[in-house]
Q: What sequence folds into this?
């Protein structure tokens, strides 16, 4: 939330649609802008049919997704003069990040909600380039970090430190409510859900799974290309064998008798001479 100088009540604060350049630069340092109407990642509790806005800051790494509800970017698509939808969205957030340019300190009860557990307030210090941090929390909650109450940081480290502190605060609330799940456990649950939805009804063996990937057989009754080549080789060997080994011995008898008769005539002719 952005609090301008002189704003005392929630109605004025939540109706802000313009902010200082320092606040806008801070919002940009929290993540990167995504188109909320086409964004496929985490979207929080924003409803595209009511209060959405075109873009919003989003951050993600291997284990975490964060989408920030920025009041100055949450435009309304319905008639909501009292900004009730904005209040409902912000009232359900565990962690609030408040940028206050007011002369006095921010009052933690400005947005009363039992769902708000931590409030991280940022005060830009004039003509110094530093920012003072103030942190409110419910009783019996563990201290969070890396930011602590009363710390002053520079502009370069402000965004990453606030983002990390807010994520740690969210995890602390989840642990307090016994709802905290580690990211790898959550990822395993999603994978198991995908397997359960798309697993084939019949359990196939691994070789049956690979068979259609490597064999291109249209009809199982027809021989494969490998079998056809073997048959052709067998036919060739058979034809070559026929040149040297006659299949039927009776077919060769007339030839042998004729040859023996000629040899006999040659011998008798030589004797007669």
A:
């Amino acid at each position: 939330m952005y609090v301008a100088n002189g704003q005392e009540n929630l109605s004025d604060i939540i109706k802000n649609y313009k902010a200082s350049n320092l606040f806008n630069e801070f919002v940009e340092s929290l993540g990167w802008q995504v188109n909320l109407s086409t964004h496929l990642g985490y979207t929080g509790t924003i409803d595209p049919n009511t209060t959405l806005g075109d873009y919003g800051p989003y951050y993600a790494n291997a284990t975490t997704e964060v989408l920030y509800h920025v009041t100055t970017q949450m435009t309304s698509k319905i008639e909501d003069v009292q900004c009730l939808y904005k209040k409902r969205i912000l009232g359900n957030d565990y962690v609030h990040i408040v940028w206050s340019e007011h002369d006095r300190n921010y009052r933690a009860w400005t947005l009363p909600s039992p769902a708000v557990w931590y409030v991280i307030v940022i005060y830009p210090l004039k003509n110094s380039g530093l920012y003072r941090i103030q942190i409110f929390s419910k009783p019996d909650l563990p201290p969070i970090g890396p930011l602590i109450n009363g710390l002053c940081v520079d502009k370069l480290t402000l965004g990453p430190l606030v983002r990390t502190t807010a994520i740690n605060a969210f995890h602390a609330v989840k642990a307090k409510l016994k709802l905290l799940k580690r990211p790898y456990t959550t990822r395993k649950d999603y994978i198991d859900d995908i397997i359960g939805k798309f697993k084939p009804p019949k359990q196939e063996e691994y070789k049956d799974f690979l068979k259609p990937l490597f064999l291109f057989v249209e009809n199982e009754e027809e021989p494969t290309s490998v079998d056809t080549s073997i048959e052709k080789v067998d036919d060739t060997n058979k034809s070559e064998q026929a040149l040297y080994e006659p299949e039927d011995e009776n077919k060769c008898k007339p030839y042998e008798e004729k040859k023996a008769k000629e040899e006999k005539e040659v011998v008798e002719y030589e004797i007669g001479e």
